[in-house]
Design brief:
The structure is a single chain. The chain is mainly α and about 260 residues long. The chain has 12 helices and no strands. The longest helix is centred in the C-terminal third of the chain and has 25 residues. The protein is globular, with a radius of gyration of 24 Å. About 5% of the residues are buried.
Length: about 260
């Protein structure tokens, strides 16, 4: 707590009478946008395993969260302690195998215990009962993350493939449907393309990794290779827009090889 107090003091001074006009006029809604940007920057730092940037971006995320909490505290809505106590109590309550007498011997058992406790919390809080297993999925989530959340919720309700091979078959089938739709209506093709993405999200889920992380790492790899190719072309006085397709492929393969050697 001692290390957080200086941050709270900075926020209070920025939002104070002699502070910053921009900080004073912020609301939870406007600050959420800042937090979302910082979360993506943190994700990028983690994907690149950039320790210096991870520390910096974690600090930025923490600052934004504290800033939002302070806005609510200023308005008399709730205190910092209430937030901390609520999440601490929830984590202890959801880990009876650590803080209680529950005995769990498998990851599947842990997941079922978590969901059972979570469902009990909703009933006890007076929240109206959900009519669908998908009611807890926020509609405003980015598409890739929402697809994963929807898929996980459907699985918890008992809707699941039997093995990874079946999921891969579904993805291949969706690709064929997309190819057929290309010669038809663009909206149909777009929907089929969406089906490909949705099925690939489930391939990732079934394989045990997060699709967003996979995409970020693949994008980062492409970016690094492209920058290597750009540097090589510049040294040779070549313009990417002017060289032939064969030359582009040659330089791209050289960039890939150089990148992989650096990673080795």
């Amino acid at each position: 707590m001692e290390t957080i107090i200086p941050l709270l003091e900075i926020i209070r001074r920025l939002r104070g009478e002699n502070g910053c006009a921009w900080d004073r006029k912020q609301t939870p809604s406007t600050m959420w946008k800042c937090l979302a940007e910082e979360l993506y920057e943190l994700e990028d730092a983690i994907v690149k395993d950039d320790e210096v940037n991870i520390v910096e971006e974690l600090g930025d995320v923490l600052f934004q969260i504290l800033f939002i909490m302070e806005i609510y505290a200023d308005a008399g809505r709730f205190s910092f302690d209430r937030v901390v106590n609520a999440v601490a109590e929830k984590m202890i309550r959801r880990h009876p195998h650590v803080y209680g007498d529950s005995r769990i011997t498998s990851e599947d058992g842990l997941n079922k215990q978590w969901e059972t406790i979570k469902a009990g919390e909703k009933v006890g809080s007076g929240v109206s009962e959900r009519r669908s297993a998908l009611d807890n999925v926020p509609s405003g989530m980015p598409g890739l993350l929402r697809a994963l959340k929807v898929s996980k919720s459907a699985v918890k309700a008992g809707f699941e493939w039997e093995n990874l091979g079946q999921v891969l078959d579904t993805a291949v089938s969706e690709i064929h449907e997309f190819e057929a739709a290309l010669s038809m209506d663009q909206d149909d093709a777009m929907l089929e393309f969406g089906d490909i993405l949705f099925s690939l999200v489930n391939v990732a889920r079934f394989a045990g990794f997060h699709p967003e992380t996979a995409l970020c790492r693949a994008t980062s790899k492409f970016e690094q290779r492209f920058r290597i190719m750009e540097t090589a072309l510049e040294k040779q006085g070549l313009d990417l827009k002017q060289i032939s397709s064969e030359e582009k492929e040659k330089h791209w393969q050289a960039a890939k090889e150089m990148h992989d050697q650096k990673k080795a």
